[in-house]
Amino acid sequence: MMRSRVLIVASLFGSLGMIFGCDRTDDRQKAAAEQARADEKIGRADEEARKSTTEAQQKADKEVAEAVNTANEKSAKAQTEANETIRTANENMLKARNDLREWAQKKLNEIDNDVDASKTRAQKAPSTAKANFERALQDVEKQRGNVQAELANLDSQAASSMNDYKTRLERAFEGFKESVNRLDKTL
Predict the structure, then answer these.
(1) Are 129 and 187 in contact (CB under 8 A)?
(2) Residue 153 needs a FRET pair 20 to 30 A away by CA distance; which of 34, 39, 159, 182 works?
(3) What is the pTM of this model?
(4) 114 part of a folded domain
(5) Rounded distance, CA 68 to CA 27, Å?
(6) How many CB atoms lie within 10 A of CB 94?
(7) 3-state per-residue secondary structure call for the chain
């Protein structure tokens, strides 16, 4: 009887061990299943984070590229406008120089004609008048040289100094004209 009790108790413990052992296996399986679900959620979250980061980076790259393109377009437009302004200023300066050169050449030709007329009259003048004429003619030639020296500087004048240059040129012409007037008085 004792032996049967021992066997019953042993059977009972064995059955209990199997029952409890199965519960541990089920717990392990449940834990493994939960871990797998958690790993899957983490993987999805990581994938979503990578996707969001990639999208944000692409958006930022696109915005930077658009900003650079806009800046380049504005820069190109500003450069074009600056080039047009420079070109217009250069054209205006060239016109002003050409107008001044034309005016000076006309004035120089008029005074040279007066000198030539005086030289023609001097050929018929008495010898004492001719000597005075020759001395005065040297001053005329000097004054003409001053005018030509000023004219030679025309192309090197900046736009900002053109008014001063024209004033100097007019004074040189006045000196030239006065010397021609003195030349005429010798005859």
Answers:
(1) yes
(2) 182
(3) 0.62
(4) yes
(5) 60
(6) 11
(7) CHHHHHHHHHHHHHHHHHHHHHHHHHHHHHHHHHHHHHHHHHHHHHHHHHHHHHHHHHHHHHHHHHHHHHHHHHHHHHHHHHHHHHHHHHHHHHHHHHHHHHHHHHHHHHHHHHHHHHHHHHCCCCHHHHHHHHHHHHHHHHHHHHHHHHHHCHHHCCHHHHHHHHHHHHHHHHHHHHHHHHHHHCC
Residue 45 domain flag: no
Question: Tokens 């005429």 belong to which residue?
Answer: 184
Q: Is the distance from CB of 122 to CB of 133 less than 8 angstroms?
A: yes
Q: Residue 98 sits in which domain range?
A: 94-185
